[in-house]
Amino acid sequence: MILVTGGAGFIGGNFVLDWLAQSDEPVINVDKLTYAGNLDTLASLKDDPRHLFVHAGIGDREVIGKLLAEHDVRAVVNFAAESHVDRSITGPGEFIQTNVVGTFNLLDVVRHYWGDLPADKKAAFRFLHVSTDEVYGTLSATDAPFAETNRYEPNSPYSASKAASDHLVRAWHHTYGLPVLTTNCSNNYGPYHFPEKLIPLVILNALAGKPLPIYGDGQQIRDWLYVKDHCSAIRRVLADGKVGETYNVGGWNEKANLDVVNTICGILDDIKPRADGAAYASQITYVQDRPGHDRRYAIDARKLERELGWKPAETFETGIRKTVQWYLDNEQWVGNVTSGSYREWINQQYGA
């Protein structure tokens, strides 16, 4: 079986669901269930014997060590991370504890487990670390997209903490021989996304008749990757990636934030028009830009396509329409995650 950390979060939850939809190999799912972890995402697996959920963090060495010792774990896929740049600016300490100290603890426990495996299982074992394109810093409008050879230039507490975790993974491979793989992805979107991030926030605010907050001039450019495409890329890397290598995962969809918001508004105008007939884009509101806001991210995913034959199945146009429809069809999931604490944070971040 495999052990997945952070498997009740957005990307991790989608990965667990997709894994068990395509494979009978069981999953041990370890998640600390912080604000962004949500067992409702995994509701369809409640009685599935292939899914073992364990409430713990990646820093819980005793729990992780016991799980590894008691189960025949052939791979660890590490999604567990604090991931929101805005939250890292207001509270960086939690990001250091989870993304840096937590990753160290996980690596160290896994190293000892791996070191005691029989030779054949030791050779087959993999530790896959899921990271972000933000470790590479920012790009100008004319710069080439990030390649795996780009140097690290993180600009936020979040990206700095993820860069540190990437370096730890690399060091555990080169020093101890732990068979690691690293993926660095662009901005994910899709089902089960906690609505602090741009796309779900805009969808839900639009439907609620609330302002659609746009940082600065809205011309910050991101590459957008449909989450199920990301999950398929991780499965591909886990199966055939070269030990010690890094693979960038992108959607080949560079979009300015304002264009993303206008696209969402257009889809909602089409499939769920406002009662007053006005365009959802009339709700767009510009707010003060966040400190140190990176201007552009772009991913060069050619290595992954060239070496492992992977490329995304969704365009932004197909993926964003599926995403909007998912939020319209899953009001109960949305209602359960948009708690009082979430509303307080949104008001703090963007203004009431």
TrEMBL record:
EC number: 4.2.1.46
Reactions catalysed: dTDP-alpha-D-glucose = dTDP-4-dehydro-6-deoxy-alpha-D-glucose + H2O
Transmembrane segments: none
Presence of the UniProt keyword tRNA-binding in the record: no
Assigned keywords, A-Z: Lyase, NAD
Cofactor(s) named in the record: NAD(+)
A GO molecular-function annotation: dTDP-glucose 4,6-dehydratase activity
Gene3D superfamilies reported for this sequence: NAD(P)-binding Rossmann-like Domain, UDP-galactose 4-epimerase, domain 1
A Pfam family matched in the record: GDP_Man_Dehyd
Domain NAD(P)-binding: 3-323
PANTHER family: DTDP-D-GLUCOSE 4,6-DEHYDRATASE-RELATED
Protein name stated in the entry: dTDP-glucose 4,6-dehydratase
